[in-house]
């Protein structure tokens, strides 16, 4: 009977790339991967922030930083190459990079719309297709895409973000079907209200309104998203592909 390794060894000997890895959910995912035995490459628009994050995770032997704009396919190639060349393989990719440009449709500019769709959706497509090309050669790999509860229910002021995050779900399922027979799994996570620098800047009234919608009556912590990403990245989820896991405290179930 097969038994799973202890949590500390779930990603032993594996290399993971995390986009938007310098802070927030991305950084916490990278930390959980390192704790599970992985080596990580952090991609971020800010090389300084990514380097500081990599240093905090243990330096060059376990974590490296690469400046990466996920909208640029060439930069995504370079990011993934840093994993293969630096650590010998690409076993896991987490497409987490994202931005918000919230506004009602009446006030949202075309640029606000284009940028959000570009970073989230095209960025996730770039990461998924580039990683899949490498992973299929190894006949194994796990891709984890970070969607959002906004991609399930739609949020006022987020026609751009909700559309992008819903798009990531469709992309995940289509890619999962294409890659299944190559041994590559593609899954998505939809976080709800997670306590971070971004959400704590919210007006109190907006925060209270969201809290009222959560059966568990609290915001989630970044570590509670990271542990689900770890589950999807490791062999504990070996028979799961094309799934969407909600990490929401029961909000909008």
**Which ranges are low-confidence, i.e. pLDDT below 50, for 5 or more consecutive residues?**
none
Spatial order of strands in the largest sheet: 3-2-1-4-5-6-9
Q: Structural class given helices, strands, pairing?
A: alpha/beta
Q: Determine the strand fraction and express it as a percent band.
A: 15-25%
TL;DR?
With 253 residues, the protein is α/β, with parallel strands linked by helices.
Short key terms for the protein model shown above:
single chain, 253 residues, alpha/beta, two-stranded parallel sheet, 46% helix, globular
Protein described:
InterPro entries: KR_dom, NAD(P)-bd_dom_sf, Sc_DH/Rdtase_CS, SDR_fam. This is 3-oxoacyl-ACP reductase FabG. The protein is of the alpha/beta class and 253 residues long. Helices cover 46% and strands 17% of the residues. The protein has nine helices and nine strands. The protein has helices spanning 24-35, 47-57, 73-87, 110-138, 150-153, 159-179, 197-200, 204-211, 222-233; strands at 15-19, 39-44, 63-67, 92-95, 141-146, 184-191, 194-195, 220-221, 244-247. Strands 3-2-1-4-5-6-9 form a seven-stranded parallel β-sheet, with helices on both faces. Helix 1 (24-35) links the parallel strand 1 (15-19) and strand 2. The model has no long low-confidence stretch (mean pLDDT 96).
How are the elements arranged and paired?
Blueprint: E1 15-19, H1 24-35, E2 39-44, H2 47-57, E3 63-67, H3 73-87, E4 92-95, H4 110-138, E5 141-146, H5 150-153, H6 159-179, E6 184-191, E7 194-195, H7 197-200, H8 204-211, E8 220-221, H9 222-233, E9 244-247
Parallel strand pairs: 1-2, 1-4, 2-3, 4-5, 5-6, 6-9, 7-8
Helix pairs in contact: 1-9, 3-4, 4-6
């Amino acid at each position: 009977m097969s038994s799973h390794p202890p949590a500390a060894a779930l990603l032993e000997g594996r290399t993971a790339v995390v986009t938007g890895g310098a802070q927030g959910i991305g950084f916490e995912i990278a930390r959980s991967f390192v704790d599970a035995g992985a080596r990580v490459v952090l991609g971020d628009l800010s090389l300084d922030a990514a380097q500081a994050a990599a240093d905090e995770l243990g330096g060059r032997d376990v974590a490296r930083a690469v400046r990466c704009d996920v909208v640029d396919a060439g930069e995504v190639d370079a990011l993934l190459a840093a994993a293969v060349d630096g650590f010998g393989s690409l076993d896991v990719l987490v497409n987490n990079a994202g931005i918000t440009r919230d506004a009602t449709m009446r006030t949202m500019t075309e640029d606000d719309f284009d940028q959000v769709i570009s970073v989230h959706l095209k960025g996730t497509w770039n990461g998924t297709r580039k990683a899949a090309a490498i992973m299929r050669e190894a006949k194994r790999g796990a891709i984890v895409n970070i969607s959002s509860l906004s991609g399930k229910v739609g949020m006022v002021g987020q026609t751009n973000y909700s559309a992008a995050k819903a798009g990531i779900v469709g992309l995940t399922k289509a890619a999962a079907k294409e890659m299944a027979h190559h041994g590559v799994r593609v899954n998505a996570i939809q976080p709800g209200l997670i306590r971070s620098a971004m959400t704590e800047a919210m007006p109190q009234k907006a925060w209270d309104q969201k809290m009222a919608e959560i059966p568990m009556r609290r915001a989630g912590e970044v570590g509670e998203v990271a542990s689900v990403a770890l589950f999807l990245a490791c062999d504990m989820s070996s028979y799961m592909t094309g799934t969407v896991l909600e990490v929401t405290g029961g909000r909008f179930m």
